[in-house]
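Morning. Coffee machine broken again, so started the prediction first thing and wrote up yesterday's gels while waiting. Chain of 246 residues, entered below exactly as on the submission form.
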Amino acid sequence: MLRCDHTTASIGFVTLVAMKTIIPAPATPSLPVVGSEQRFPVRRIFCIGRNYADHAKEMGSTVDKAAPIFFCKPADAVVSDGADVPYPQATSDLHHEVEMVVALGDGGRDLTPEQSSALIWGYGVGLDLTRRDLQAQAKAKGNPWDTGKAFDHSAPVSALRAASDVDVNAQTTLQLEVNGSPRQHTTLGEMVHSVPEIIAALSHLFELKAGDLIFTGTPAGVAALQRGDAFYAELQGVAELRGRIV
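Came back before lunch.
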């Protein structure tokens, strides 16, 4: 594990396997792995906002490269294996945001971008589903975005592919279709912050660990989803995600 040079006391935790629980222990969310019967356990989900300038513009915002915006989703927001996605409660304006997803196989803190690349285990494609009406209300009041971003089933993610098996670069295409019609399309070179920069910045705010997922931002073209809509997301040559809103 990569760590900073500071000496800190270790913090111990009793694992659920080693103790008796007063209620049934929650299941660990996980994702399938292409070419393997093993699965990738999900620890945390980190997301970056405004990482494509064209999306920031369509949302009426600007990009501050020196101060990336981060938010989180709970691990159990993951929807895996192509399962149907329930239309969420408390909203009438559910939006799609297609994103490349990075899976970490190691952890650390206070990392440089050069060190950060070593943490990457694999890649996938996902949707950062957003209750846009609730997010807009929170923004208007200067409140956190949690109700707009961190709700149940808000993170459909494809099967992951090991980084050693693919070539992800600036020309790699990220795209989304809904009911067969194009909605979002970009290349990864359009990202404001690169993946190593994102990981490094996060590591100065949190101690990253194996099992963490990072949603790396969405391009322009976000729009509403309705019950019955079928979506197809693709990270070219790496991952595909098909699903349906029910």
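Residues 3-11 have pLDDT under 50 and may be disordered. Going to sketch it on the whiteboard this afternoon.
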